[in-house]
Amino acid sequence: MKTLLHICCAPCSVMCIDTLRNEGIEPVGFWYNPNIQPYTEYKSRREALKEYAKSIELQLVLEDEYNLREFVKNVSPNFDERCEYCYTFRADKAAEYAAENGFDSFTTTLLISPYQNHELLKEVFAKAGEKHGVEFLYRDFRPYFREGQAKARELELYMQKYCGCVFSEEERYNKKMFKK
After folding, report:
1. CA 86 – CA 168 distance, rounded (Å)
2. Most C-beta atoms within 10 A of its C-beta, which of 11, 25, 77, 153?
3. What is the pTM assigned to this prediction?
């Protein structure tokens, strides 16, 4: 099965790739994350993924698009509802690429995070697959999250502190302030 794996970051990809490979699926990595801000964070995550992919001989497709203004425009003024938009535009791009390039299926590393809205991810990625005529390969990677994070630390991969958008970074700081 030829599967495209949308990858949000190198640490989240570790166990997703291992799990798929253990199933006999050799994924092709797909980087498309214009939601990540600021650009220095975007670049750090992209470069970490490029290095990791090379080290494990993972074919990687880079859809290198950084567009802060477009992202903010599309989540404004409903900043608290931004995740659905964020999932949707990335799912749509991955499904479109998979369909246009002969993939049997596609999936995402976002499914490993216990911090993401798992049910919404499943729904959005399944709809994108239907729209573009490519199978959404659902896997609940969450049981492997801690193991993947530990492996990422061992490999000294760049480890981010927030989901990706500037609003998730703001939430991280607000939580720190609230704890004090």
Report:
1. 12
2. 11
3. 0.91
